[in-house]
Structure formats: C-alpha cells, structure tokens
Write a structure and sequence with these properties.
Belongs to the FliO/MopB family. The chain crosses the membrane at residues 28-50. This is Flagellar protein. The protein has two helices and four strands, in the order H-E-E-E-E-H. The chain is of the alpha+beta class. It has helices at residues 2-54, 123-138, and strands spanning 64-71, 77-83, 86-93, 96-104. The protein folds into three domains: 1-57; 64-104; 112-136, no CATH class. Strands 1-2-3-4 form a four-stranded antiparallel β-sheet, with no helix packed on it.
C-alpha cells in the first residue's frame, strides 16, 4: 500500500516542480526582457545627449562651422558654412557639392551696444525696460 499511497504524492511533486520550473522560466524571461529594454534605453539616451551636447560646439582650431541647413528635396540641401570669416552657401546633393554664393560674415558683436533695439540686452534688462515703459504710461495723473 505504501507504493500506491506514494504514487499520488510523487505525481503531485512532479506537477509542482514543473509549475515552479515554468514560473522560474517566465521570471528569467521577464528579467532578460527588462535588462534588454534598459540597455536600449541607455543607448538612446547617450546618443541623444551626445547630439545635444556637441550640436553647437566648435573645437578649438576647427576652421569650419555649419551655421544652418535646409532640405530642398529628399536628398538635396542648402547649407550655410562659415570658413575664416566668410559665409559660403552650398548646394549639397548625393555625390556633389556646389558653391551657390559667398558673402562676408557679419560681425559677431552682441546687440547690447544699441539700447534702443528691441532685442538688446539680457532678459533682465529687457524686462526692466518694459516695466519702466509700462509704469510711465500707467502712472496716475495729478489734478
């Protein structure tokens, strides 16, 4: 009788271990998927940061600076490049670059020299000017 009584217990033990194995397999698969998503997220974050940090920077001694570009078609672009104080307007197509126009670069002095300009100065200076202008117009009149 002991062999008959132990058979249901052995079957239950086998069924329980198969359930545990399936549970461990799903947990391992979930952990692996989560780790893969984390690695892909880190790669995307690093590439975004690299583009963001190096977009406007120019290395010392680098004679070329791309000022802007505009797409004209699927593969054609117009690019403005600054080289040694000269702006070059270039047409860029697959396998071909053409100079469209050349002009001297404008001076790089800030616009803060002209206080009458609408864009002169920092935000704090412009805000103070706007407040003074508004307070002069809103001052109560004396009888």
């Amino acid at each position: 009788m002991s062999s008959l009584a132990s058979a249901p217990q052995a079957g239950a033990a086998l069924a329980g271990s198969a359930g545990n194995d399936a549970l461990f397999g799903l947990a391992a698969l979930g952990k692996t998927g989560l780790a893969l998503l984390l690695v892909i997220g880190l790669i995307l974050l690093c590439s975004w940061l690299l583009r963001r940090l190096s977009a406007g920077q120019r290395l010392a001694g680098q004679p070329l600076k791309v000022l802007g570009s505009t797409a004209l078609g699927q593969r054609e672009r117009v690019v403005i490049v600054e080289v040694a104080g000269t702006w070059l307007v270039l047409g860029v197509a697959p396998g071909q670059i053409s100079k469209l126009h050349e002009l001297p670069a404008p001076p790089t002095e800030s616009m803060t020299d002209d206080p009458g300009s609408a864009l002169a100065g920092s935000f704090a200076v412009r805000l103070a000017q706007a407040l003074k202008h508004n307070l002069r117009g809103a001052a109560p009149r004396q009888p």
